[in-house]
TrEMBL record:
<feature type="compositionally biased region" description="Gly residues">
    <location>
        <begin position="1"/>
        <end position="26"/>
    </location>
</feature>
<keyword id="KW-0547">Nucleotide-binding</keyword>
<keyword id="KW-0067">ATP-binding</keyword>
<keyword id="KW-0378">Hydrolase</keyword>
<feature type="compositionally biased region" description="Gly residues">
    <location>
        <begin position="222"/>
        <end position="231"/>
    </location>
</feature>
<protein>
    <submittedName>
        <fullName>SWF or SNF family helicase</fullName>
    </submittedName>
</protein>
<dbReference type="GO" id="GO:0004386">
    <property type="term" value="F:helicase activity"/>
</dbReference>
<feature type="region of interest" description="Disordered">
    <location>
        <begin position="1"/>
        <end position="34"/>
    </location>
</feature>
<feature type="region of interest" description="Disordered">
    <location>
        <begin position="215"/>
        <end position="240"/>
    </location>
</feature>
<keyword id="KW-0347">Helicase</keyword>
Length: 470
């Protein structure tokens, strides 16, 4: 299908050229991209505009077998350097036997009138230009262009093949070229605009000139720098809110498309600082305790400082305790509570007795929210986890020394002793020992259930059933 009719570029330039003249709307601009490595195991298009390019190819090609062969060629790295110029993309593509073919795909260039409409659309929105500079194709720009009769992305029949193998449809070589170009489009949508007739530098120069012209054009209310109908200045040193002098957004934007670099991140203070003193001569409202509020303010400042340190560190991390429930957070606060009466309020507020809160804080010190969950919640492990634990426990003791174990859910109690083993949802095993009528955490967790159970039994023998060390 060797069509070179009206509206298509021609391939007279040398393959592999490194760029053309920077001026003008068509004909002279050209970019050459080095051959890309094989694309095994990755998609050819990640962006929506890259996928739209491939859809145009796949909707146009009449022979699906040749299309698949082209995809295999592209994956294998058989496409050489790709030259992009207005109206045409070109590359040498090799068959498996090493035979090389020059392959071209023709794309219709936009007319001068169409480019004028495109420039108007892009200049109307700073967001369109910012996205292009960030190597993205904004969907709204494509939609606005389509509404104005401009098809930036190709559709069915818009990719016209020419290949030295003289195939009548998209052959494996032109198909491979299109798949490879999709990878280029992913990285730089200006490649598509160059096919349509304008190079990046040309477009940006024309857009900037248009923006400057708009900013300096006389306003409808009496001229640039003059006053509007109410006597207020309209540009330049226009009065802003409150009568303060300023610069209009159009003038500021006309200075250039690129924003200044962001300032350096703030330097984090070494500590969260001192909380305000709230115990003043003024009597507080009933039920409000200044000391408790100072405690909460100190805690909030420390947590905020920790979040800031984590966010500005070399690797962003979530701050610990960011997703605690109210009952969990009450335990966290009780760990650092300075006064017994604050601890009592935390116990009441979280629905615990003072003894239950004391036990919860002991668990928290050993492992935070995970340890608290093991203390207060019950769950049912899967059979595989239980089988692995049973095997490990059987291997850890001789037959005549192995303690008999009674299991209930995720808890294994050594029969005739005050030792217990608990499995957390994270797969770690926690030692527990009986203290009077309750079970208490007896140490840090371990991945090995035998190690954790040995710690539980040792603690139970040391403290005794009453927890008095006998």
């Amino acid at each position: 299908m060797n069509r070179t009719g009206h509206g298509y570029g021609h391939g007279d330039g040398a393959l592999g050229g490194q760029g053309g003249s920077p001026g003008g709307g068509h004909g002279g601009d050209e970019r050459t991209f080095a051959a890309l490595p094989p694309a095994k195991g990755t998609a050819f298009a990640r962006t929506w505009w890259g996928r739209a390019w491939l859809k145009a190819l796949e909707d146009t090609a009449l022979d699906g077998v040749q299309l698949k062969a082209g995809r295999r060629h592209a994956r294998a790295g058989a496409v050489g350097a790709v030259t992009v110029r207005p109206g045409r993309i070109t590359a040498v593509v090799k068959d498996r036997d090493g035979t090389a073919y020059r392959s071209d795909v023709l794309v219709r260039e936009l007319s001068d009138d169409e480019w004028e409409r495109f420039l108007d659309l892009a200049a109307d929105s700073a967001g369109h230009i910012a996205a292009l500079l960030d190597r993205e194709m904004p969907p709204h720009l494509v939609e606005d262009a389509a509404a104005a009769g401009l098809d930036l992305l190709p559709g069915i029949g818009d990719l016209d093949p020419e290949c030295g193998c003289e195939a009548w449809d998209h052959c494996p070589h032109t198909s491979a070229l299109c798949y490879q170009v999709a990878r280029l489009l992913d990285e730089d949508p200006f490649v598509l605009l160059l096919m349509r007739g304008r190079a990046e530098r040309t477009l940006l120069d024309q857009l900037q000139a248009r923006s400057v012209a708009r900013a300096s054009a006389p306003s409808a209310s009496g001229g640039s720098g003059g006053s509007g109908g109410d006597g207020a200045p309209t540009s330049g040193t226009a009065a802003g809110a409150g009568g303060m002098p300023g610069v209009s957004a159009a003038d500021a934007y006309a200075e250039g498309f690129l924003l200044p670099p962001l300032p350096a991140p703030p330097v984090v203070a070494t500590d969260p600082g001192v909380s305000p003193a709230l115990d003043t001569d003024t009597d507080p409202e009933p039920g409000v305790h200044p000391t408790a509020l100072e405690f909460l303010a100190t805690d909030a400042a420390a947590r905020a400082h920790g979040m800031l340190v984590a966010a500005l560190g070399p690797v962003h991390q979530e701050s610990a305790g960011a997703c605690l429930t109210a009952a969990q957070d009450a335990v966290r606060l009780a760990v650092d509570s300075p006064m017994p009466w604050i601890t009592a309020r935390l116990a009441a507020g979280s629905g615990r007795t003072p003894a239950e809160l004391d036990l919860a804080t002991r668990a928290w010190r050993l492992g935070g929210a995970a340890a608290l969950s093991v203390l207060e919640e019950e769950w049912a492990p899967d059979g595989e986890s239980l089988a692995r634990a049973g095997t490990r426990l059987s291997e850890a003791w001789e037959d005549d020394e192995r303690p008999a174990l009674h299991r209930s859910g995720a808890r294994w109690t050594a029969v005739g002793t005050d030792g217990q083993l608990r499995l957390g949802v994270d797969g770690r095993w926690w030692p527990y020992a009986r203290e009077g009528a309750r079970w208490s955490p007896a140490g840090p967790p371990d991945r090995d259930p035998a190690v954790a159970l040995a710690a539980a039994l040792t603690t139970a023998l040391t403290t005794g059933p009453t927890g008095d060390g006998t």
